[in-house]
Amino acid sequence: MNKFLKAAVLSIAAAAVVLPTFGSAQARDRHRDNSDAWAAGAVGLVTGALIGGAIASQPRHSERVYIDPEPEYYEPRPVYRPRPVYRPVVVESYGLEPWTPAWYRYCSQRYRSFDPDSGTFVGYDGRSHFCTAG
Fold this sequence. Notes:
This protein starts with a helix and ends with a strand. It is built from 3 helices and 2 strands; from the N terminus they run αααββ. Helices cover 43% and strands 4% of the residues. A hairpin with a 5-residue loop joins strand 1 and strand 2 (128-130). Among the domains are: 3-56; 101-130, no CATH class. By secondary structure, it is mainly alpha-helical. It has a two-stranded antiparallel sheet. Keywords: Cell membrane, Lectin, Membrane, Signal, Transmembrane, Transmembrane helix.
């Protein structure tokens, strides 16, 4: 229900309880008996306190509620990796000329990962190295 509508209904109910007591209190005014007036006032005070407490205890719907905004998604930035630089292989010969049968024999016996097509082997660092026989 609307707040205004609730307050109006409660006010009418309070008036319906309090107003009949005023009529009887004024009818006996000739005798100067004010006990009915005091009772009506007390009933009105209690009723007003109850109605006011009920209205004050209503939850407020005007409180601000924080709502997280939708996250914005961005394309991930490209990762740039440096390109390997290929330098010409300088072969220092220690007695065996590269690409000769003796050189093939020496490199294949010395390095288990020797590739005869490229003349390289894979070292402990994971890179390919040219076989220099010596």
